[in-house]
């Protein structure tokens, strides 16, 4: 299904970009819960890092710049500096309404994930402040069933956006998700429609939405709320895609080039506005919130 | 294109239809004799035809989900262009996304439904390998979704209702598709469909494959043919990821609840469209007649609604979907 | 400025399309005024054709399907079947307001073109009927200074569109143009802005515009009113481009592939809705006008 | 980026500036002596600087069109990003057309002009061959125009004024650009700019090259720097087509009337922005200050206008352009 096409005089630009993207395609499998150890090994450069130092550096490797995944709590803390976080729909939990069992019943998966992560599901949403700005903020937890989007995530996003419409607030959502939650089958697919429709309503109300894709943002998540920002932002090196690298490699029967589907690739292909390091993220968000406000 | 002799299609028998094979052979023999003029076999022919019908009725009375999948993917199942030629008049196909390409896996155009101007969009599969290659097996690239959006906006600008006919294994997962923003294209369609100010009816005619289907399927009403499917991932995909074995697709198909009946129970669709005996591929004309009737039935109540009401109606439809504990 | 990029799984589709486009890139230089001869030679297949027969076939070569250029009068006649044509701004003529002289004074060029073509300038616009539909129709004359767009063409288009807004009519414009009229310098460039702004007003008023690109439509004409249809149509084999083939060949220092910038190429690249043979043009227009009306 | 020592730029002397060469050499020698501490040459230095200024004043008092072209294209002339860094605060560059690519020949972003949020778009040239290759010499592809449109629509959605800084030899004429609809992209921008509901000021800072310039230059007010140009085709292009000899560019430049003064007389622009002595490249800061002042002056009266008034204002501005006999 592929051939060589002589194309595009944008090639010089592409060529420069591609030189910059000499990075591994392989998806870095990060053990998500760093245990109470004093020392952590970087998943990218394999250097041993002092936990406290990593923490102080916003969980970015001081040696190689690798951005470790953040929990929703860590994300919120980094952005709000202790401003109160008024959580919305905190009590929603997932339901095994199809009685879905693969290698394990979905009901059991839910319980185990709640136990393991002490999150109720894969997103936390609420109202808070970033800098001088009141905002409606959502942050996903990849540790909760791979950040998969089921009815709870969809509902929480819809409620967050509806609260933003009511209170006339900008919306910011940090995605980190393997896609739709298959255990909820079609109902998970419908969350793409629901969240996108809510964003349509937000837009009709003249309120801005900043989408932040963090590593990884894939599948139906990317193909709905994660790509619909007035401004689309990402952290460096994040995997952002519709079809995952393995699916594509199976389809086209060849290895993907390095850097494929990483933030910088999406920037070069026009899908992201800004790729921004974590340490400049808050400043960038405030700058954009200022723009929308004044 | 529609077949003159629908019975011909039957020959492409699915695995679970094998019991029909022998009876069909007999029917053919009888016909040969009849045509040769040597003997009058018309009574026997009639009887055999009745037996075929009875057998088919029996076979299709209780299809299991994986059998439904087979019917939904049947090579002779009516395609979007088949339905268009049978349901509408004055079809003018419009091409191109005005950006990069014309995607043959997605067809869009203007037409008339009983004299009323409408816009039609839908994924296009083929009836042969050659056609399927040309149509990329009904798997659209971002260009396809952007073309669909362009034509939906055309409809909106001139207040014309939109009909989408959904039949795709999914959006194409390839390098170019990713480079040109498959995710962005589908996401934008979802948001923009929610905001359309015109009546919009979607019909899942065959495979409703995940985001690639949803990308044109946010109608005020979503209907499904009796033997079509709608799912977040293909049974094969689900089996290989969750069941760790692609061969367990049967199990996955059952577990996932992908049939029209399941969708109606879950509130995802508003209506099921009856198929001709033995599936839509057995009688394109009748299938198209049923689909058209259902579209008219569901479109009519939408016509008097205001822009605001149409948007609210669509919002509410999708807003309420989701099952959880609170 | 070029290189080979491995791209696009649309390639099979492209490949099929490309096979179909085995046609000459070279621009066919058509002598525009077929004199009172009984016989005409086809510019494409070089066959000798009987004038009357060619005329009866809408000036399409019966042997090879080559679409001869039409004058505005011929175009209007083919579409309206003798319905009255209420011309707008018929008396406008071009003015050499810059005193522009290249190899010849512009004032002289204008006079000579009027003499030669018996048109006042490169477009005729007016109100008429196609089938059952009242329409605002414009048709360009390539014979008048290569269909170049100066103040007169821009003004006539703007007045046509304003008349359509007033009378609530759809607009159809047949382009055939080498681009902006350089002898009017910046003022010709401004006609791109003027005509496009008028089309914006038409759109705001909910009235449709069908753009028909005929051979050739190039330069600023393509980059303004010729590409802005709700529906973009073209006749087969027409050259339609922004930069002309020679300019591109000079820039990239290589020959262009066959079929480049022809109608079928633009269709494959998503810029045209329909490529339609002249004999089906009227029917297609009526079909589309019906769509917009009912 | 802006230079600390603007005088340094002078060394890149244009042909008609050659008389300055000798005086500059003298100045340099004097400075060397001064810096060595051997003698006090400050009086002589001052005098020589004055001579340079006087000579420059004389040279620039009556530039002919082709000399203006040279100044407009000067490698050290402030680029869009130079102006942005000198005129605005809180610049955030936004990338990408959400379709195909990010075009580095066009820059777009959000910024503040004296505390007011605005959106800025403009073509970007380089100050060196390397930079120019990276920026494609300020010649944008369709992606650039589509990015600009996307960001203009963002501005419109949130009611922010738009500033465009225009500096391009033209839109890029290449295979990919044609394939992806250079004409379509520019045409759509023209129509959409006409319909923008926010105040919009365009400044031609260097080369206003044909449709590629106009594609982002349909402001309610269009301003030009003193030594910038605006034309339907480059003098070289015009010469080679109309004069049948590319070397007759001088003649073409004269015949075409491409200077700011010509544009003001023809009613194409509203104002001319004074440049620092010897051209904007001699003093980026002063040039930026002048441009900023002019933008503020012309933007302020637009701020109270309603959506409808802004559209009407822009329509009338372009509607009236055209000279003919009736
Ligand atoms: Zn590291
Ligand atoms: Zn011929």
What is the CATH architecture assignment of chain A?
Answer: Alpha-Beta Complex
**Stretches of chain A where pLDDT falls below 50 for ≥5 residues?**
1-28
What global shape of chain B is seen? globular
Output the number of helix runs of chain B. Answer: 14
Strand tally of chain A is: 11
Could you list the spans of chain B in which at least 5 consecutive residues all have pLDDT below 50?
Answer: 1-10
Class from helix and strand fractions of chain A: alpha/beta
Number of strand elements of chain B: 9
Describe the fold and architecture.
The complex is a heterotetramer, with two copies of chain A (294 residues) and two copies of chain B (326 residues). Chain A is of the alpha/beta class. Chain A has one domain (69-293): 2-enoyl-CoA Hydratase, Chain A, domain 1 (Alpha-Beta Complex). In chain A, 37% of the residues lie in helices and 17% in strands. Chain A is built from ten helices and eleven strands. A seven-stranded mixed beta sheet of chain A has the order 4-6-7-8-9-10-11, with helices on both faces. In chain A, strands 2-3 form a two-stranded antiparallel sheet. In chain A, helix 7 links the parallel strand 9 (209-217) and strand 10 (231-234). The radius of gyration of chain A is 19 Å and the shape is globular. The relative contact order of chain A is 0.13. The relative contact order of chain B is 0.13. Chain B has 326 residues and is an alpha/beta fold. Residues 1-10 of chain B have low confidence and may be disordered. In chain B, 46% of the residues lie in helices and 16% in strands. In chain B, strands 1, 2, 3, 4, 5, 6, 7 and 8 form an eight-stranded mixed beta sheet that branches. Chain B is built from 14 helices and nine strands. Chain B has two domains: 17-61; 67-319, 2-enoyl-CoA Hydratase, Chain A, domain 1. In chain B, helix 4 crosses helix 13 (284-299) and helix 10 crosses helix 11. Classes of the chains: A alpha/beta (294), B alpha/beta (326). Chains in contact: A-B, A-C, A-D, B-C, B-D, C-D. The complex binds zinc ion (ZN) (2 copies).
């Amino acid at each position: 299904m592929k051939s060589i096409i002589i194309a595009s005089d944008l090639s010089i630009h592409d060529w420069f970009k591609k030189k910059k993207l000499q990075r591994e395609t392989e998806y870095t499998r990060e053990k998500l819960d760093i245990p109470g150890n004093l020392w952590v090994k970087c998943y990218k450069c394999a250097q041993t890092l002092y936990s406290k130092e990593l923490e102080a550096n916003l969980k970015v490797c001081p040696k190689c710049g690798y951005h470790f995944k953040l929990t929703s709590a860590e994300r919120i803390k980094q952005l709000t500096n202790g401003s109160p976080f008024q959580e919305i729909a905190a009590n929603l939990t997932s339901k095994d309404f199809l009685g879905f069992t693969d290698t394990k019943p979905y009901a059991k998966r839910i319980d185990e994930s709640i136990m393991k992560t002490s999150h109720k599901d894969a997103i936390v949403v609420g109202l808070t402040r970033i800098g001088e700005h009141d905002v409606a903020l959502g942050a996903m937890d990849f540790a909760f069933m791979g950040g998969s989007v089921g009815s709870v995530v969809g509902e929480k996003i819809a409620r967050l956006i509806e609260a933003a419409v009511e209170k006339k607030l900008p919306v910011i959502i940090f995605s980190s998700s393997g896609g739709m939650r298959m255990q909820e089958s079609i109902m998970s697919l419908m969350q793409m429609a629901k969240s996108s429709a809510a964003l349509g309503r937000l837009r009709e109300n003249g309120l801005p939405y900043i989408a932040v894709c963090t590593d990884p943002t894939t599948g139906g998540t990317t193909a709905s709320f994660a790509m619909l920002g007035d401004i689309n932002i990402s952290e460096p090196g994040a995997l952002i895609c519709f079809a995952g690298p393995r699916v594509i490699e199976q389809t086209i029967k060849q290895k993907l080039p390095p850097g494929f589907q990483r933030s910088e690739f999406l920037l070069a292909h026009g899908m992201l506005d800004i790729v921004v390091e974590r340490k400049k993220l808050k400043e960038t968000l405030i700058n954009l919130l200022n723009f929308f406000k004044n | 294109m529609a077949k003159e002799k629908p019975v011909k299609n039957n020959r492409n028998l699915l695995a679970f239809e094998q019991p029909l094979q022998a009876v069909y052979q007999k029917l053919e023999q009888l016909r040969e004799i009849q045509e040769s003029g040597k003997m009058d076999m018309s009574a026997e022919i009639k009887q055999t035809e009745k037996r075929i019908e009875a057998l088919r009725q029996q076979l299709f009375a209780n299809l299991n989900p994986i059998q439904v999948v087979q019917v939904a993917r049947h090579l002779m199942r009516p395609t979007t262009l088949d339905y268009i030629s049978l349901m509408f008049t004055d079809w003018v196909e419009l091409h191109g996304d005005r950006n990069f390409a014309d995607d043959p896996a997605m067809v869009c155009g203007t037409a008339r439904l009983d004299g009323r101007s409408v816009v039609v969009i839908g994924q296009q599969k083929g009836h042969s390998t050659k056609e399927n290659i040309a149509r990329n097996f009904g798997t659209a690239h971002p260009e396809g979704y952007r073309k669909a959006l362009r034509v939906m906006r055309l409809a909106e600008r001139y207040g014309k209702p939109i009909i989408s006919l959904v039949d795709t294994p999914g959006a194409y997962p390839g390098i170019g598709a990713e480079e040109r923003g498959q995710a962005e294209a589908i996401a934008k369609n979802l948001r923009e469909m929610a905001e359309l100010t015109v009546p919009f009816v979607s019909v899942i005619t065959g495979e409703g494959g995940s985001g690639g289907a949803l990308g044109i399927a946010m109608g005020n009403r979503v209907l499904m043919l009796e033997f079509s499917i709608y799912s977040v991932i293909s049974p094969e995909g689900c089996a290989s990821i969750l069941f760790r074995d692609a061969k367990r697709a049967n199990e996955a198909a059952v577990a996932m609840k992908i049939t029209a009946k399941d969708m109606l129970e879950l509130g995802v669709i508003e209506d099921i469209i009856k198929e001709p005996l033995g599936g839509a591929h057995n009688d394109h004309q009748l299938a198209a007649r049923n689909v058209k009737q259902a579209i008219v039935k569901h479109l009519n109540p939408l016509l008097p609604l205001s822009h605001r009401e149409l948007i609210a109606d669509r919002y509410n439809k999708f807003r309420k979907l989701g099952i959880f504990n609170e």
